[in-house]
Amino acid sequence: MKFDATKWGFIDAMKYNERGYKGCSEWLLNESGLSLRNIYTLSQFVDEKCFYLNDTFFKQVRDVSDDGWSDVCYQIVANGKEFFEGITLEKIQHMIDNDLYTESFAYSFREAEDRYFEYKKALAELKYERTKPKTP
To answer: Which position among 23, 91, 105, 130 has the lowest Cβ density within 10 Å, counted as fewest Cβ atoms?
Structure first.
């Protein structure tokens, strides 16, 4: 099965509501079987879903800080495809009013993203070393 077809499946498998972001980070790096590149791609997918929520609902919600709103958006995605696809303004406001969200799901991806960018930098440096002109 293609990775693109299973992104929501990986989000479910992360079990964010049980593990929290630290446990999810460990799972991604040590148990998911995903490459750093695929973890980064999954992170971008999650971000895109949050951008959609922000564009659709931000101006309508009340009584939440910018940071809290970000946490709400990432919580909605962490709750899975069915929850995301069924979200309404009323459900979001209920989450806000009852503190039904936690520290950002986005943090789950930070360590993997850092490792991915370190890897990309090392590859670029290696490529440069192999292609730079030799000095006599």
So the answer is: 130
Mind listing the pLDDT tens digit for each residue in 90-105?
999 999 999 999 988 9
Q: What is the pTM of this model?
A: 0.83
C-alpha–C-alpha distance, residues 136 and 133, integer Å: 9
Q: Is residue 56 within a helix (H) or strand (E), and if so which, with residue range?
A: helix 36-57
Angle (CA) 50 23 105, round 5°:
10
pLDDT digits (tens, 9 = 90+) for 12-62: 999 999 999 999 999 999 999 999 889 999 999 999 999 999 999 999 999
The token duo for 4 is: 């693109």
Find all residues with CB under 8 Å of 19, minimum gap 6, and list them. Answer: 26, 27
CB 105 within 8 A of CB 75: yes
Are the beta carbons of 120 and 38 closer than 8 angstroms? no
